[in-house]
Write a structure and sequence with these properties.
The complex is a heterotrimer of chains A (about 55), B (about 475) and C (about 120).
Chain A (H helix, E strand, L loop, with lengths): L1 H29 L2 H4 L6 H6 L5
Chain B lengths: L21 H17 L4 H6 L1 H28 L6 H8 L2 H34 L7 H17 L1 H25 L11 H4 L10 H11 L19 H28 L4 H4 L5 H8 L3 H35 L18 H17 L2 H29 L16 H41 L22
Helix pairs in contact in B: 1-7, 1-10, 1-13, 3-9, 3-10, 3-15, 3-16, 4-5, 4-15, 5-6, 5-13, 5-14, 5-15, 5-16, 6-13, 6-14, 7-10, 7-13, 9-16, 12-13, 13-14, 15-16
Chain C lengths: L10 H24 L7 E3 L14 H9 L4 H8 L1 E3 L5 H35 L2
Antiparallel strand pairs in C: 1-2
The chains are: A mainly alpha (about 55), B mainly alpha (about 475), C mainly alpha (about 120).
Chain lengths: ~55, ~475, ~120
């Protein structure tokens, strides 16, 4: 039972790893680098939190 | 399958999602740390005896209460992904921030490695099958959790909340099922911890025990990493962190009491499964299985939180170009720092296959203590550059500067404790940080935009 | 003060920088393991004892050891495996010097960079 579980673990690891690689490739080819790396620190902050002095 | 770009919050920019509440912050903090009760803290008993493990549980508890207080104040004000990294960037300077982010990534990745090894070893110990190797379970742990993190932060932390709560409740169940109010029936504290063996190495043993005492709470400061994904950071972060700290202090006390009352310190100090062994010694198969499962869940929760935190620290480094900006990509659909998650995955796997539990834990502790040393100095500078009243703080911690001083002193003691056990490793690690700092200061920093790093809507700091 | 415009890094440069960091991480974490620097000084103080009493275990402790599947012979190496804490002053002084030197460098270099950041940020407004 445990040996089967260990093979199943390898299986799941490989499948999920391949899926992530596939998704990564797909996202990187679908969207431009400018869109993907457009997150800016503090921007959300400035909108959602009002810093009054 | 087509991908639809959900409307990003700010025009056409893709950012992390603000979806988390205080319960998620608690789950992130306690989830990372709770595994320390299931393994790791007991090596403090090895270093200095059972009583030393209790003494450091309290004193290091004080250290972490200071950490939680200081962290809550700074992070409720500097609420950005990367947590202490963003704090260092705004308060001390870029090079410090770079180092802090590396402390974070190392501490969390090595903690994740320890969790995966623990999980693999626990399953192998339970199975007791000849030739069964832990590598399959290690790989599954790291890959499945990375996948969960890849798919979104809300689901990741919902899962963490559930498994952390189950693991926590199992400690409480174990505690109450051994009739903690009567000694002698199941618990035999006064026969196991005697005046003759309470401190087998004397006080130097207590100091040496600090190294693993850290393990009772290491990682609670990780709550700040979620700052950019929490709906209301100024309220949720202090609340979740403090609640987490209280939860952990209670769990640590219960764990010590049950384990020290059931096992001789020599055994307690070397076992990898103190709580699981305690459950076995009660003779109840139900408790034994419960604590077996809880050990696995605690390890999972911790590794999960670590992947979350390490990826966010790495992501922030890329966003400021401290590292190639390639890492700062956000997944358009899942809104996660997916490239950072994927990059750290093989590194964690590699170390999980080559390192052993003790060493991985020590690497993690070293980076943690370097970071706490920074935090004690950081809060002093924060109060000096922006005194109370000059900016709006989400939370202001009391008794300043006492917590900072306590934290600094305890860090010095812990460095000494590490010297007693792992001195040469500490020197090697610091040498690494020193070299990589030179690389950053003299080479890499030229790619960084200067003024853009300061993103908080604050006035100019005093003295500049 | 004029704004500092960083040079644009080429793709190859980015990949090279990532490689540098990865190699540095592996060297820092893996080398101490390989060189056997990791781990504290622990050694077995051998006893010719074959009874629980001689190993300093009272009847309660002995019964727990037995429940865990140990005999005095198999438990001997666990119980007598002790730390020997000695303060090696030269190493301690080197460690303290390295740590203090590291933090001093960190704060001084950071402060120099920080002044640039503040100047640029607040002069722009």
């Amino acid at each position: 039972m445990w040996t089967a579980l260990s093979y199943a673990s390898w299986g799941i690891s490989i499948v999920l790893a391949l899926w992530m690689l596939y998704d990564w490739f797909k996202i990187d080819t679908t969207f431009s680098e400018e869109v993907l790396t457009s997150s800016r620190e503090g921007e959300l902050e400035a909108v959602s939190e009002k810093h009054r002095i | 399958m087509t991908i639809t770009l959900e409307p990003a919050i700010h025009g056409d920019r893709v950012s992390l999602l603000r979806v988390l509440g205080p319960a998620h912050v608690w789950a992130l903090g306690v989830g990372i740390v709770l595994v320390g009760e299931f393994t790791g803290w007991n090596f403090a008993a090895d270093k200095g005896g059972a009583l030393a493990a209790l003494i450091v549980c309290w004193i290091v508890g004080l250290l972490y209460t200071s950490v939680a207080m200081i962290d809550s104040e700074v992070t409720s004000t500097v609420a950005a992904a990367g947590g202490q990294y963003a704090q260092a960037k705004h308060i001390v300077g870029p090079l410090m921030a770079f180092n802090v982010a590396l402390f974070l990534v190392f501490a969390y990745t090595m903690l994740e490695v320890s969790d995966a090894i623990l999980l693999g070893d626990t399953i192998v110990a339970k199975a007791a099958v000849e030739g069964l190797n832990h590598n399959a379970f290690i790989a599954a742990t790291i890959v499945v959790l990375a996948w969960l993190n890849y798919r979104g932060v809300l689901m990741t932390l919902n899962v963490n909340f559930v498994i952390t709560a189950v693991a926590y409740v199992s400690i409480v169940i174990l505690f109450f099922s051994v009739s903690p109010w009567t000694q002698g029936a199941v618990l035999k504290l006064n026969e196991l911890v005697t005046p003759g063996n309470a401190l087998p190495y004397g006080w130097i043993g207590v100091i040496a025990a600090f190294q693993f005492g850290i393990w009772y709470y290491l990682g609670i400061e990780g709550t700040t990493q979620a700052a950019e994904e929490v709906r209301s950071p100024a309220r949720s972060l202090p609340y979740g962190t403090m609640a987490g700290m209280i939860t952990l202090l209670i769990a640590a006390a219960m764990t010590w009491y049950v384990c020290a009352s059931l096992m001789p310190w020599e055994y307690l100090g070397i076992t990898y499964y103190p709580l699981w062994d305690a459950a076995k010694l009660t003779g109840s198969p139900l408790l034994e299985n419960l604590l077996f499962i809880a050990t696995l869940l605690a390890a999972l929760a911790s590794a999960n939180g670590c992947i979350n935190d390490a990826a966010r620290a790495w992501f922030s480094l890329g966003r400021d170009r401290y590292l190639p900006s390639w890492f700062s990509a956000v997944h358009p659909r899942y809104r996660t720092p997916y490239r950072s998650i994927l990059f750290l995955l093989p590194i964690a796997l590699a170390f999980a296959f080559i390192a052993d539990l003790n060493q991985a834990i020590t690497f993690s502790i070293l980076s943690g203590v370097l970071q706490y040393t920074f935090m004690s100095i950081n809060i002093m500078m924060f109060r000096k550059k922006w005194p109370l009243g000059s900016i709006q703080r989400g939370y202001t911690h009391p008794f300043h500067p006492l917590p900072a001083i306590v934290l600094f002193c305890l860090c010095v003691v812990t460095f000494f404790a590490i010297f007693l056990g792992f001195g040469s490793q500490l020197i090697a690690m610091v040498a690494f940080y020193f070299l990589i700092s030179l690389w950053f200061h003299f080479y890499r920093y030229k790619f960084v935009r200067r003024g853009d790093q300061f993103t908080m809507p604050w006035p100019k700091p005093q003295g500049y | 003060m004029s704004r500092y415009t960083p040079p644009k890094q080429s793709k190859a440069g980015q990949i090279f920088d990532i490689a540098v960091v990865v190699v540095a991480i592996f060297v820092a974490l893996w080398l101490p393991l390989k060189m056997g620097l990791a781990g504290a000084a622990k050694s077995i103080d051998a006893l010719d004892a074959t009874t629980w009493e001689a190993l300093g275990q009272n009847p309660t402790m002995a019964s727990i050891w037995e429940k865990l599947g140990y005999t005095p012979e198999t438990a001997h190496d666990i119980i007598q495996n002790r730390f020997h804490y000695v303060i090696d002053w030269p190493t301690l002084i080197i460690m303290a010097a390295v740590l203090i030197g590291y933090f001093v460098f960190l704060f001084r270099a950071s402060d120099r960079e920080y002044r640039d950041v503040i100047n640029e940020k607040f002069d722009d407004k």
